[in-house]
């Protein structure tokens, strides 16, 4: 019998992560329905068109998909892991043969599955109730798959890395949530990005959420809307290059700083 690899252990860990998550009914309902609630609120309040053939709901769906990557990956893990560390869950896992990389893979599987379900529900509700138009070309759908996979991986490793910042599990939410909320406002999730002050745009351009949001807009908005972007085009290559760069930074940061136990 061959020795289990880090990948195979990680896949098994991912299955366990999913089972544990599904048992937390309140968390499941909130995670899956929160984007729909925001779409219902903003889609009802801002029902006007922001450009020819582009409603605010269409724009907002793109932003919520990108925001969901950060909420499900970065925010959830940066809060959950300190709690697992404080409750001794990680200390017990350290006593098993499972390497840290397998633990990371398990979290990534959970984040990716959760994100796929969120996107499906968000698009279904958007089409059914708010007149959201889905991409028509195969190239757009391929870009969406790449964005979801790459964005989920990036958000996952950054969430794991940032989980070392909160000093305790109880205070993790107070540290992480404001960071996510500020980035959402700065990155054009709730407002048209080019309508924001220039200094906000410059700050947002440092972080991956701005590029995830722009990438989602390039998929769900017509190409004519690209002229309203800062560069006058979608910058697709630059978008994925920056997200990939943050993925690499997140992996290095997570591997070097991850702690099984509290200091």
TrEMBL record:
Query: What are the UniProt keywords, alphabetically?
Result: Antibiotic resistance, Cell membrane, Membrane, Transmembrane, Transmembrane helix, Transport
Q: Where are the transmembrane segments?
A: 28-47, 59-83, 104-129, 141-162, 174-193, 239-258
**What are the recorded GO MF terms, alphabetically?**
ABC-type transporter activity
Sorted alphabetically, the Gene Ontology BP terms of this entry are: response to antibiotic
Cite the Pfam families for this sequence.
Answer: ABC2_membrane
Which GO cellular component term is one of those annotated? ATP-binding cassette (ABC) transporter complex
Q: Where in the cell is it found?
A: Cell membrane; Membrane
Which residues are in the ABC transmembrane type-2 domain? 26-261
Q: Which PROSITE patterns match?
A: ABC_TM2
Q: How does it sit in the membrane?
A: Multi-pass membrane protein
> From what superkingdom does this record's organism come?
Bacteria
User: Is Membrane a UniProt keyword of this protein?
Assistant: yes
Q: Which family does it belong to?
A: Belongs to the ABC-2 integral membrane protein family.
- PANTHER family linked to this entry: NODULATION PROTEIN J (PTHR43229:SF2)
**Descriptive protein name:** Transport permease protein
């Amino acid at each position: 019998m061959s020795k289990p690899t880090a990948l195979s252990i990680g896949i098994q860990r991912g299955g366990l992560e999913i089972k544990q998550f599904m048992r937390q009914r309140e968390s499941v309902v909130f995670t899956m329905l929160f984007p729909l609630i925001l779409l219902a609120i903003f889609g009802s309040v801002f029902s006007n068109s922001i450009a020819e053939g582009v409603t605010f709901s269409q724009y907002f769906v793109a932003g919520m998909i990108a925001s969901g990557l950060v909420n499900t990956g970065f925010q959830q893990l940066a809060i959950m892991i300190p709690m697992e560390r404080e409750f001794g869950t990680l200390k017990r896992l350290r006593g098993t043969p499972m390497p840290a990389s397998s633990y990371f893979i398990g979290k990534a599987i959970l984040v990716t599955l959760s994100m796929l379900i969120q996107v499906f529900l968000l698009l279904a509700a958007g089409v059914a109730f708010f007149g959201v138009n889905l991409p028509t070309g195969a190239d757009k759908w391929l870009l969406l798959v790449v964005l979801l996979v790459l964005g989920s991986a990036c958000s996952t490793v950054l969430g794991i890395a940032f989980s070392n910042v909160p000093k305790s599990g109880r205070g993790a939410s107070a540290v992480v949530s404001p960071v996510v909320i500020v980035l959402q406002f700065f990155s054009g999730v709730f407002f048209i990005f080019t309508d924001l002050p220039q200094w906000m745009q410059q700050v947002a351009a440092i972080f991956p959420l701005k590029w995830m949001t722009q990438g989602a807009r390039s998929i769900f908005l017509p190409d004519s809307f690209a002229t309203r972007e800062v560069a006058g085009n979608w910058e697709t290559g630059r978008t994925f290059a920056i997200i990939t760069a943050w993925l690499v930074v997140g992996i290095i940061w997570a591997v070097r700083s991850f702690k099984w136990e509290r200091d």
